[in-house]
Design a protein that fits this description.
Blueprint (H helix, E strand, L loop, with lengths): L16 E4 L1 H14 L4 H13 L14 E4 H5 L3 H15 L8 H21 L6 H10 L2
Antiparallel strand pairs: 1-2
Amino acid sequence: MRRNAPPPGLPPVPPDALRLSKTTRDQIATLKRRTGVKHMNVLCRWALCRSLAEPVPPPAAPADTAAEIAWKVFGGPSAQLWWSLLLASAATTGEPARPLDDDAAGALLRAHVARGMAYLAGDPQISDATSLARLALAGA
């Protein structure tokens, strides 16, 4: 898998793993308890979607790494869909100002998951798995 700047005309490739900060890992643990969702990759997908719904780019994620999810586990059979959503969002929000290379796209993924997880963990309406579905339907 290539790293850094893709050749002209080629989009960045997903990272080998999604690195999560201690704060994000702790928020995942909280959401697992509250929702009953057992797998952190599922919660991270919800977090990505929640963050992508915002019209502005996320702030940079904390630099520490307390947990990792292999990209194949995070993305599952829909990995290309998640990556395409991230790249499309970056193109529409203008983030970053320069073309995305592999490392910048991976950092953007991490930032979106961190922001989305903070939103979900801080939302008192998220009390079980069905409240995640209600959140999705409310935005439809």
